[in-house]
Design a protein that fits this description.
Chain A is α/β, with parallel strands linked by helices. Helices cover 34% and strands 22% of the residues of chain A. Chain B has 11 helices and 20 strands.
């Protein structure tokens, strides 16, 4: 078992003929994901790693039947169009490994996704992987590398850092454990799914016995995770590291946003709010895996 | 965020039918005099800098005549206020203030909202954070529906704004929202929104920041560097942005940390991945070292982009070492980084014999990347140490190695340890 993607999840790759799109389509397929189609306007009829390419999402669905998930490898300014197209095709889970997306575009696609009852991971998420099950995005990189770093096990991992969503599972493996599903929530200023959206999914997953979070300064996400635990929506052991205690103020925080986020944003406040909820907060990232091991034994 | 100056903000607010004081921007005392002559009323001369509290810091002056305006502008232009140099002043009619309000739009990223939030307060002219919440009316906007005129009216009505100024206030709030949306702002504030003694509603001051990722849609604003920063761009910021602007593949972020650095102990810091990169900074700080710059190349950038980032970092004159802080077991094929870094080292290290470099690179194609690094630097006169995933979380060890190599390098140069 895993969350959000399963062995039978059918996956579409939007922007499949580009540099990342073609490389990661090959990765996903090679890893065992059911990649059924790709889309690039004007390239219909071609193939990428044996995956048929269509001109539009509608054309892909006409040929392949309903599709569960899409991964969008398109430039930031083109993402909104791609997401609307996927949502109109009835796709309910979209992974967006795309950075530098215009902010108002993000707000519109998230609002439209909500209206359509879909889950949007990112933007700026490098993806999701469930070892031995499936991968959507470029988390894992290549099949050989993914097999070496991500081994199946009882820990769910959620990260705000793309790089750390590979590093934490690697450290977990080194500690003799493994992971159920690993997700990177993304890097853009507003995100479709944050910790509090994902923790309840791990709560329901019988194969996940504990969760590790790699947090960062800024935004309300760690506080929301704490709230999730406080309300009992997540009851399994949770280990969190918050990076960026050194960061000077003003580099990323805007003045007016502090009104809505009073008391939210700094590493200190995040750690306080997590500790108050009874979460295991570690001081260094290399303590994540040993702490999990202790909690699970 | 790409911040706008007050005069730029007022220009676009005016286009959205928000009343602003009559005025223009000046770069010389003579221009200030001419503008004051045109206005033909007492004027305010306002320093155009990215800082709050300008008034208290002496950045706003008042003049009754064009001649006085010229004199005041002469005092302000070129002066330093809150560590920022004044290059332009806004000369505008002086407002007779009856009362001050506040209007603002921000983005709320929290899970229940994920939308713009429009705020209005009857307590303007002060830091909005200090205003009690019962004096603030706010509304989260459904972007698919939009923000309507009557939404603005309702915000004002909720705080019992008197009938005679209800409509101009709503018009200002609506105009602010439209500006926020049309210019893809990350934040937009009118503070204070002034009620003048003769009953007009005018934007007294404004603060706006354009979303970095939307700057390309607004070439008319002439934003040089689309980057979040509390200060105007430094030379390094400009170079770094040029690298980023011209190549969309992967991310290259470079920020100067200590623009007026003095003394020893600065490291040119090249991180990989936003989360991991900051781990290395913590560790360097613990060893008493400082970073001259912060950088992050990630998201699978091309070797060309990594090269340009490394080149910029290594070209900083007063650094004593270079650290490639790849504190991630990366999914991206790391040979792009290896190739890019080697090229920059080959160009820069011969200029500084003995220069210390601690290089940590882990992840996909690690073995091949190590070979590229070792092979490419073996004939260079620097001090090199290379590490892979066995040291990925050994931040203190790597920072200590950096420190030890820097001390050796100081001996070479006859510098006594501090």
């Amino acid at each position: 078992m895993a969350i959000l993607i399963e062995r039978n999840t059918t996956v579409l790759v939007q922007g499949i003929t580009g540099r990342e799109g073609s490389a990661r389509a090959a990765f996903m397929k090679g890893y065992g994901t059911k990649v059924v189609a790709g889309v690039t306007p004007g390239r219909g009829g071609e193939e990428v790693s044996g995956i048929p390419v269509y001109n539009t999402v509608e054309e892909a669905i006409r040929a392949q039947g309903p599709i569960d998930a899409s991964v969008t490898f398109v430039p930031g300014p083109a993402l909104k169009e791609a997401v609307y197209e996927a949502l109109d095709g009835g796709i309910k889970f979209i992974v967006m490994p795309v950075e530098r997306v215009p902010l108002y575009d993000i707000l519109e696609m998230l609002a439209y996704g909500k209206q359509k009852g879909a889950k949007l991971l990112g933007p700026g998420s490098i993806g999701i992987i469930s070892p031995g099950v499936a991968a959507a995005g470029w988390l894992g990189g290549t099949p050989e590398f993914a097999k070496r770093v991500f081994v199946p096990g009882p820990v769910g991992v959620i990260s705000r850092s793309g790089g750390q969503s590979g590093t934490v599972p690697w450290a977990i493996k080194e500690a003799g454990l493994g992971v159920s599903t690993v997700l990177h929530i993304g890097t853009e200023p507003v995100l479709g799914m944050s910790f509090a959206d994902i923790l309840p999914l791990f709560e329901k997953d019988p194969d996940t016995k504990a969760v590790a979070i790699f947090g960062e300064i800024g935004g309300p996400y760690e506080e929301e995770a704490a709230e999730c635990v406080r309300k009992g929506e997540f009851t399994k052991p949770l280990v969190v590291y918050v990076a960026g205690a050194w960061a000077p103020e003003g580099m990323r925080f805007s003045h007016a946003s502090s009104i809505i986020e009073r008391g939210k944003g700094s590493a200190k406040d995040k750690i306080k709010s997590l500790k108050e909820a009874g979460v295991h907060v570690v001081d260094r990232p290399d303590e994540i895996a040993p702490t999990l091991k202790k909690l699970l034994s | 965020m790409a911040r706008l100056y007050e005069y730029q903000g007022k220009q676009i607010l005016k286009a959205a039918k928000v009343a602003v004081p009559q005025g223009e921007v000046a770069s010389t005392p003579e221009e200030a005099r001419d503008i004051a002559e045109k206005i033909a009323k007492p004027v305010a001369i306002k320093s155009q800098i990215w800082a709050g509290g300008r008034g208290k810091a002496g950045g706003i002056k008042f003049a009754n005549t064009p001649r006085e305006a010229e004199q005041m502008a002469k005092e302000l232009l070129g002066s330093t206020i809150k560590n920022l140099t004044v290059e332009k002043v806004l000369v505008e009619e002086r407002l007779d203030i009856e009362k001050e309000f506040y209007a603002g739009v921000i983005i709320d990223a929290s899970r229940e909202v994920r939308a713009p939030v429009v705020m209005f307060s009857t307590e303007g002219g002060v830091d909005i954070e200090s205003v009690p919440s019962e004096k603030i009316a706010q509304m989260a906007v459904d972007v698919l529906r939009g923000f309507r005129y009557y939404d603005a009216l309702n915000l004002a009505v909720r705080l019992r704004v008197p009938n005679q100024i209800l409509q101009p206030i709503a018009q200002a709030i609506l105009g602010l929202y439209q500006t926020f949306k049309n210019y893809n702002c990350r934040t937009a504030e009118i503070n204070p929104l002034v009620l003048t003694k003769d009953g007009k509603i005018v934007a007294g001051d404004c603060r706006m920041a354009i979303d970095d990722s939307s700057v390309f849609r607004h070439p008319e604003l002439g934003i040089e560097v689309a980057r979040e920063s509390p200060t105007p761009p430094t030379e390094l910021d400009r170079i770094a942005w040029k690298i980023e602007e011209s190549d969309l593949r992967g991310t290259c972020y470079i920020a100067q940390m200590a623009p007026d650095r003095k003394g020893l102990g600065y490291v040119g810091y090249h991180g990989i991945g936003g989360g991991g990169a900051i781990l290395g900074v913590d560790a360097l700080n613990r060893q008493g070292l400082k970073i001259a710059n912060y950088a992050d190349t990630s998201g699978n950038p091309t070797a060309a982009k990594v090269y340009r980032a490394a080149k910029v970092i290594l070209s900083q004159p007063d650094i004593e070492g270079y650290m490639l802080g790849g504190f991630i077991v990366a999914n991206q094929e790391q040979w792009h980084h290896a190739h890019g870094v080697v090229k920059a080292l080959r160009e820069e290290i011969p200029k500084r014999p003995g220069f210390p470099c601690v290089i940590l690179l882990c992840g996909n194609k690690e073995k091949e990347s190590m070979e590229i690094l070792k092979e490419g630097t073996k004939d260079l006169p620097g001090r090199f140490e290379f590490y892979g995933s066995e040291k990925v979380y050994e931040t203190d060890f790597l920072a200590k190695r950096m420190k030890a190599l820097i001390l050796e390098y100081r001996k070479d140069r006859g510098i006594k340890e501090e």
